[in-house]
């Protein structure tokens, strides 16, 4: 196996959408060494890849990559002589730190950074998953169809913890998970569907359990009257909870991508977010979008099979 450094993007949804591309690299003989946010390890725990939490300022990131280059050159004498890093982010800094670390990186030729890369590929504009898949295919010099599903695995330990949490909170089978949070806006438009509180009240009135898993930065849970809150679970356990759900209703947010990736029936309620680029991926996904207006409560419940 040949070691390969992969610089991941910074958001949960992006990392999930890059998973088929990572699987493809492994299937073609590469041992992956992933550099990304601290939560990547818990998200991808069942896949067995080595994960390095990305260092802070630029000089620290360069030192981190140099140390990794030295250790992998020791394991594989041919490491330094070939293309040895794949850069998924399109930012100039991703290519710069690779170049300063003495790595031969492949990435997209965005932000005028082509001269920093060992090989610069023209970006493919379309769905983000297709973007990551195309870059891995070009790195491998292959032309393969995009997979229909992501196939994120949940470790046995995480699934057991998820099941224990559901029992502890008295959550019954057939529960619905709502993901009413979304980071930031899309082109200055809010991404949060305004009817989540009504959805929760409608479902709980019919004696159905509704689960919400807010993180430390997620505000406004007090408006979800009747929802069963399971707070601050890590991403691996969250995937286990989502896998057990009858249906997941989510904004344009990382947990929506997570639900689709573990195969949960998922309704992605999108406002300004462009589904052709950012909708969750997979056969279990339905997109509810009527922009420039938001879908009504009835439209979303119908899409979720809850009407």
Overall description:
This protein is of the alpha/beta class and 307 residues long. The chain folds into two domains: 2-140, Glycogen Phosphorylase B (Rossmann fold); 156-303, Rossmann fold (3-Layer(aba) Sandwich). Helices cover 36% and strands 17% of the residues. Strands 3-2-1-4-5-6 form a six-stranded parallel β-sheet, sandwiched between helices. A six-stranded parallel β-sheet has the order 11-10-7-12-13-14, sandwiched between helices. Helix 3 (40-43) links the parallel strand 2 (30-36) and strand 3 (50-53). Helix 4 crosses helix 5 and helix 7 packs across helix 9 (235-244). The radius of gyration is 20 Å and the shape is elongated.
Distance between the termini: 51 Å
Spans where pLDDT lies below 50 across 5 or more residues: none
What structural class is derived from the secondary structure elements? alpha/beta
| Count of structural domains | 2
Task: Work out the strand percent.
Answer: 15-25%
Mean pLDDT: 95
Radius of gyration from the CA trace? Answer: 20 Å
CATH class of the largest domain: Alpha Beta
CATH topology of the largest domain: Rossmann fold
SSE blueprint and pairings:
Layout: E1 2-7, H1 12-17, H2 19-27, E2 30-36, H3 40-43, E3 50-53, H4 58-75, E4 85-87, H5 92-100, E5 105-108, E6 119-121, H6 128-140, H7 156-168, E7 176-179, E8 185-186, E9 189-190, H8 196-205, E10 210-212, E11 228-229, H9 235-244, E12 247-250, H10 254-261, E13 266-269, H11 275-278, E14 285-288, H12 297-303
Parallel strand pairs: 1-2, 1-4, 2-3, 4-5, 5-6, 7-10, 7-12, 10-11, 12-13, 13-14
Antiparallel strand pairs: 8-9
Helix pairs in contact: 2-6, 4-5, 7-9
């Amino acid at each position: 196996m040949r070691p390969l450094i992969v610089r991941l993007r910074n958001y949960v949804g992006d990392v999930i959408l890059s998973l088929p591309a990572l699987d493809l690299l492994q299937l073609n003989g590469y041992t992956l060494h992933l550099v990304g946010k601290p939560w990547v390890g818990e998200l991808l725990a069942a896949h067995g890849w080595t994960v390095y939490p990305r260092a802070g300022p630029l000089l620290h990131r360069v030192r981190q990559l140099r140390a990794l280059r030295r250790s992998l050159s020791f394991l594989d004498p041919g490491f330094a002589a070939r293309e040895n890093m794949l850069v998924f982010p399109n930012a100039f800094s991703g290519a710069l730190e690779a170049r300063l670390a003495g790595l031969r990186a492949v990435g997209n030729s965005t932000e005028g950074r082509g001269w920093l890369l060992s090989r610069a590929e023209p970006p493919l504009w379309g769905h983000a998953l297709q973007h990551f898949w195309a870059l891995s295919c070009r790195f491998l010099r292959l032309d393969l169809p995009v997979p229909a599903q992501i196939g994120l695995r949940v470790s046995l330990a995480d699934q057991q913890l998820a099941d224990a949490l559901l029992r502890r909170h008295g959550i019954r089978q057939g529960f619905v998970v709502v993901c009413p949070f979304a980071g930031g806006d899309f082109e200055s438009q809010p991404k949060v569907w305004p009817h989540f509180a009504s959805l929760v009240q409608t479902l709980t009135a019919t004696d159905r359990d509704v689960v919400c898993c807010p993180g430390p930065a997620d505000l406004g849970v007090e408006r979800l009257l009747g929802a069963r809150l399971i707070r601050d679970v890590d991403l691996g356990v969250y995937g286990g909870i989502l896998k057990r759900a009858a249906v997941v209703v989510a904004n344009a947010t990382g947990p929506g991508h997570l639900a689709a990736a573990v195969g949960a029936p998922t309704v992605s309620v999108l406002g300004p977010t462009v589904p052709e680029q950012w909708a969750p991926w997979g056969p279990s996904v339905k997109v509810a979008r009527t922009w420039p207006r938001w879908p009504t409560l009835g439209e979303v419940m119908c899409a979720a099979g809850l009407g």
